[in-house]
TrEMBL record:
Localization: Cell membrane
Organism of this sequence: Oxobacter pfennigii
Record's protein name: Glutathione transport system permease protein GsiC
SUPFAM superfamilies: MetI-like (SSF161098)
Entry annotated with the keyword Translocase: no
Main location: membrane
Taxonomy, superkingdom: Bacteria
InterPro entries: BPD_transp_1_N, MetI-like, MetI-like_sf
Keyword Repeat: no
PROSITE patterns on file: ABC_TM1
Assigned protein family: Belongs to the binding-protein-dependent transport system permease family.
């Protein structure tokens, strides 16, 4: 693949990324505007339930909420570029500061979850193909079907009861250490691992029908050499795309597992913002989650092209 093609592909991905991010920021602004909640009233009522309309209007003018649509939109865009997502109604702190306080623990939790997904998906899917039709393959199929149907929060409760209450290996309440994040990361990763195993297994089986596999068999390569040497690499793009989508989605959907293990992460912050109708906290959390989603998917597309030449040729 020549340099011109690589440059063209990167420019295309960059333009797509910018367009999608612009759309995400616009939707985030519309979320603030059309929810039917008046931030000025929420701020004033939080301090004084019997506040007058004049006091609310004064706060509305101070925050620029009475400005024309285009002025508010441009002001919001410039604020996002500077990293200003507004001031939270609940604690009157910058939303970006609130998010940066809770994001690291969520990031570490999801990184652990995705580590389990990567290791077990590749290993188990390859073994299922090697022992295709055997007891191991049938057992993994049943486990995956059950695992896909199991909600993460229910599995989290089972793991917490089993390994923190009945068998006190772990703590009931997470303290942010590596050990305390093992159970929640397993609960979050198990359904995704089951899905990834099925997707990767199907992709590997499809690749085994390719001509290069017949050529490798004719040259005397074993199943282990063919699958781990060539087939698995060409089958990875589908699993990588799925992996990136779930990895990014977990930033916005981790609230249930975090609540079970009392982890103060991004999911809990989003849930608390919804409960208190903190529109700035809600839109800021959703914006960060959406940007991460786009980033992970763009990275997955680039990584798939680097790992699998066939995928790179199809996408150019």
């Amino acid at each position: 693949m020549d340099t011109a093609s690589i440059g063209k592909r990167l420019v295309k991905r960059l333009l797509n990324f910018i367009i999608v991010i612009f759309g995400v920021v616009t939707l985030s602004f519309c979320l603030q505007l059309f929810t039917g909640t008046d931030p000025a009233e929420m701020i004033v009522r939080k301090q004084n339930v019997f506040a007058s309309e004049e006091q609310i209007q004064a706060v509305r003018e101070r925050l620029g909420l009475d400005a024309p649509f285009h002025e508010r939109y441009l002001d919001y865009l410039s604020g996002v570029v500077r990293g200003d997502l507004g001031t939270a109604i609940t604690n009157r702190k910058p939303v970006i500061d609130n998010i940066m306080e809770v994001l690291p623990i969520t990031f570490f939790l999801i990184a652990m979850s995705m580590l389990w997904v990567m290791v077990f998906s590749v290993l188990v899917a390859a073994l299922s193909v090697i022992f295709r039709g055997g007891i191991f393959d049938h057992t993994i199929r049943i486990v995956c079907i059950i695992g896909i149907c199991v909600p993460s929060f229910w599995l989290a409760l089972i793991l917490l009861t089993a390994f923190a209450v009945e068998i006190p290996i772990f703590k009931v309440i997470s303290d942010g250490s590596f050990k305390s994040l093992i159970l929640p990361s397993v609960a979050m990763s198990f359904p995704i691992t089951c899905i990834s195993i099925r997707v990767l297994r199907a992709s590997v089986l499809n690749e085994l029908k390719s001509d290069y596999v017949l050529y490798a068999r004719a040259r005397g390569f074993t199943n282990y050499q063919i699958i781990y040497g060539e087939v698995l690499r060409n089958a990875l793009p589908a699993a990588i795309t799925l992996f990136a989508q779930y990895c990014a989605a977990l930033f916005g959907t981790s609230a249930l597992v975090e609540s079970v293990f009392s982890i103060q992460g991004l999911g809990i912050y989003l849930m608390e913002s919804c409960e208190s109708m903190d529109i700035y906290g809600i839109s800021g959390s959703i914006l960060v989650s959406a940007v991460l989603f786009v980033l992970f998917n763009t990275a997955a597309d680039i990584l798939s092209g680097l790992i699998c030449p066939a995928y790179r040729r199809r996408r150019v």
